[in-house]
Design brief:
Elements: E1 2-4, E2 11-14, H1 16-24, E3 38-41, E4 47-51, E5 58-61, E6 67-70, E7 77-83, E8 89-96, E9 106-113, E10 119-124, E11 130-135, E12 141-146, E13 151-155, E14 161-165, E15 172-177, E16 183-188, E17 193-197
Antiparallel strand pairs: 1-2, 3-4, 4-5, 5-6, 7-8, 8-9, 9-10, 11-12, 12-13, 13-14, 15-16, 16-17
Length: about 200
């Protein structure tokens, strides 16, 4: 990961800590895994969270590169860090299994408290990988989009599932909520986009 200044095009720094882990090829699966690193800025751009399938997420100060938090202690693969708009939480998508060759991967999303770096909730329920996740504009909801052909809405403060949206022919890879949280758009690998009423759950 490289951090650039948009006004000048100058390279400010390389996110060395995650690059080091990435280049060494360390993997929680016990083999080399050179999957792409993903990163996200906090709303005020003071921090950057970075992760890949090869390592565990870290949160660094954007300017100095100093590591603020390393998210350890969970035996799952974590990726796609996303900050809530209010800056109080960030979430990571993940895969979870017992690492046996015959075990089935299931999707999970984790919500972290940005101030303490501690896990607030682990949101389990998807039977396939979580492809993407998005916070609502008011930071109250988190939406997960999964390979199991569903999207789910979660309450960020309680960790409880609010609604599930199924019926997609293939996996859901992305989507977004409208600003007022009344509608949810889902995008699937079948090439279709759907608009859902979040209160009724109807298409």
């Amino acid at each position: 990961i490289r951090l650039w200044e948009t006004a000048t095009g100058k390279l400010l720094r390389v996110v060395t800590e995650t690059d080091k882990i990435f280049m060494e090829g360390k993997s929680m699966l016990g083999k080399e895994d050179f999957s792409s690193i993903t990163a996200a800025f906090s709303g005020d751009a003071r921090y950057i969270a970075a992760s890949s399938l090869s390592n565990i997420p870290v949160v660094q100060e954007t300017g100095s590169g100093k590591t603020v938090t390393t998210l350890e202690g969970i035996s799952i693969l974590m990726y796609h860090p996303r900050y809530s708009p209010d800056g109080n939480f960030f979430a990571t998508a993940g895969l979870k299994n017992n690492l046996r060759a015959d075990s089935k991967l299931s999707g999970v999303a984790n919500v972290w408290d940005t101030r303490s770096g501690k896990l607030a909730f682990s949101l389990a329920g998807h039977t396939g990988a979580v492809n993407e996740l998005r916070f609502s504009k008011d930071s109250k909801w988190l939406v997960t989009f999964s390979q199991d052909s569903t999207a789910r809405i979660w309450d960020v403060l309680t960790g409880k599932a609010i609604a599930a949206f199924g019926g997609h022919e293939k996996g859901v890879y992305n989507g977004f909520l409208t600003k007022d949280n009344k509608f949810l758009v889902t995008q699937t690998f079948s090439g279709l986009a759907r608009i859902w009423d979040t209160e009724s759950g109807n298409l």
